[in-house]
Amino acid sequence: MTTLRDAGKTGHARYTYRLRPSSTARAALLAEWDRCRWVWNQCVATSRAAHTARQECGPVRLDKMLTGWRGDHDWLRAGASVPQQQTIRDFAKSRAKALKDITARLPMRQRAGMPRFKNKDRAAPTLNYTRRGFRLAGGRLHLAGGIILTVVWSRDLPADLSSVRVYRDSPGHWYVSFVVPARSEPLPETGRAIGVDWGVKEVATTTSDAHDLPHPRCGRTAAARLARYQKMMARRKPSKGKPASKGYRKAARLAARLHKKVARQRQDTARKWAKKVVRDFDVLAVEDFKPKFLATSTMARKAADAAIGATKTALIEMARKHRRDLHLVHPAHTTMDCARCGARAEHALPLSERTYTCTACGASSPRDKNSARVMLVRAGLDPAGVDRGRPDVPPGRQAA
Ligand SMILES: [Zn+2]
Prior knowledge:
By secondary structure, the protein is an alpha+beta fold. Among the domains are: 24-142, no CATH class; 188-216 and 256-378, 2-Layer Sandwich (Nucleotidyltransferase, domain 5). 40% of the residues lie in helices and 18% in strands. The chain is built from eight helices and 15 strands. The strands form three sheets. A seven-stranded antiparallel sheet has the order 3-7-8-2-6-5-4. Strands 1-13-12-9-10-11 form a six-stranded mixed sheet. Strands 14-15 form a two-stranded antiparallel sheet. Helix 1 packs across helix 4, helix 5 (217-235) runs antiparallel to helix 6 and helix 6 packs across helix 7 (299-321). Zinc ion binds next to loops. Residues 338, 340-341, 343, 358, 360-361, 363 line the site of zinc ion.
């Protein structure tokens, strides 16, 4: 079990806004991206050659090489140096991570993998600027190299900006994402605790009936439409080495747009719910759910996993921001234990069985409500008094 009470003290938050770049600005961003992509690919080639020759290829060497490349090529020097230096730094970071995973002898599929060449058609444009590479003036974002961008200020931006990322998403929209120090905003104490269980039927079942979160109905229709686009893409998939057909690109664009829309709705619902939970409770005992992305998962299961993932993240972030005490509880056996007496059922309940009945103490309650109460017990809290205020809970043996 992990406690996240003080984890947010040194954290960072991202504030993201939509950009409305003029055609001039868009062309300038893409030209910067072409140069940064070239720098990245040079880094890949250099580090591969260094690896073969058993030479060191750290950020210092690459930084020096950038100076050389800029001296040799006028077109590279025509671009701002800040995003190119950031490219080197990002490359060094991802290379170091890959090397660390190799040293740690992680299984192949868990390793980060060495940085690879970025393909012009497949890699999404991303430019990073440190504090000296951008400024805000007259409500617009000025990037090094004289690129001026119109920002849609959908919410207030805090001061103390440390860096900025400008990127284009798969449906083709441009965004800017500012990094700011995470602020903590303590809320008044409530003296109450809540247990949260994630599931396929409801996104969250909690020890408080007023805080349960059902799966959104729109999620199912969106999942069906997404499945249709994916089938269209599979049918129109270009053969290896051939350019994608118009029909394939259209289906891919529709799928990307829908994906984005669903993710946004999901995040919006998750944040609103998390805000409510964090406002009403000081202590949160939350199932540490980890989705298993199985190839055999149904569309409904995948959609449910994605909704749970987004909601769990939102709850953790919200608890951190408002300095609430959040315990992550290991999910093993949470559906088999009795929240009232702690006895463990001999067999896991089939998913179709919606009621948990304890063979030891005879307590009977909806399956997910029992699991939510088990979260509280596991976090060392007393589910009685939290839920319906049952004072008659025997001091039975508690699950570890
Ligand atoms: Zn029991």
